[in-house]
Amino acid sequence: MTSNISTGAVSFSDPKLMDAIDGMDEAREGGRSTLVSRNITVLGRRTSVRLEPEMWGALRDIAKRERCRIHDVCSLIQLRKNPNTSLTAAIRVFLMLYYRAATTEQGHVRAGHGDFNTMMTRAQATPDSLHMRKRGRGMNGGTSHVSTMQPAQTPSFHSMQGL
User: Fold this and answer.
1) Beta strands in the chain, from DSSP E residues, in sequence order
2) What's the pTM?
3) Cα atoms in the 13 Å half-sphere on the side-chain side of 5
4) Which of 47, 132, 131 is nearest to 88 (CA)?
5) pLDDT single digits (tens) 40-93
6) Left, alpha or beta for 2 (phi > 0: left; psi -120 to 50: alpha)?
7) Do 94 and 85 touch, CB atoms closer than 8 A?
């Protein structure tokens, strides 16, 4: 399966995604930051935000879809976030919630989601490669956690009391 913008499906075999993953590995190994700083205006005040390039791309896509500017989206996030949460963290949470609210079971099926073995195949990973990280331990200490949250229970950004 290849990238399909109309359905939002992205395959792990998508060359752009694989290049991004490779770039993250190279940056991590080289000790350099993958974060990109940009100046934005939030509630009329100029500020700097450091996010991953993929997060900036997601913000740009959301602003385009909502027919506004990134500054407007970030101002809305600033208004709604918990006062104890940084703007950067709130933006990341907003992006996840925005896309989560848009997901459907049909979309997951079209994207080929629902089978971790298929996901590993697309990522060109093996079960052994997952358990070799951090001195032989797998992610989460070798255990897996599966969310029991149903799509109907997924909180929307508009219903949140604060990020």
Assistant:
1) 36-42, 45-51
2) 0.61
3) 4
4) 47
5) 999 999 999 999 999 999 999 999 999 999 999 999 999 999 999 999 999 999
6) beta
7) no
